[in-house]
Amino acid sequence: MTDEQNITGAEDVEDFCRVCGYDEERFWENGVPTGAICPCCGAKSGIGGMGEPTWEELTEIREYRGHWIGNGAQWRSPTLRPKDWDLLKQIANIPPEWR
Ligand SMILES: [Zn+2]
User: Fold this and answer.
1) 42 C-alpha vs ligand 1 centroid, how far in Å?
2) Is residue 50 part of a domain?
3) N or C: less crowded end of the chain, CB within 10 Å?
């Protein structure tokens, strides 16, 4: 990455889970995964890189997501699950390139 691309820094931080769309956790910082584990789907940050995902990265995310939803979309930390939690609403947080 050049310094020029780094000026805004907007691409260096991600506060949503690429698998399930949970957005109360810092998953990427300064362009590297924080190692945070999503309390919702249990995915560890670090799949793929910053910017546009490759086909392999996207496939990995989709497989994880499909497996998670196929098993009932269970929360890893059920105590953090909001009473009015809505899977489809949360999934809408996932940016189009990671869907
Ligand atoms: Zn997640």
Assistant:
1) 6
2) yes
3) N
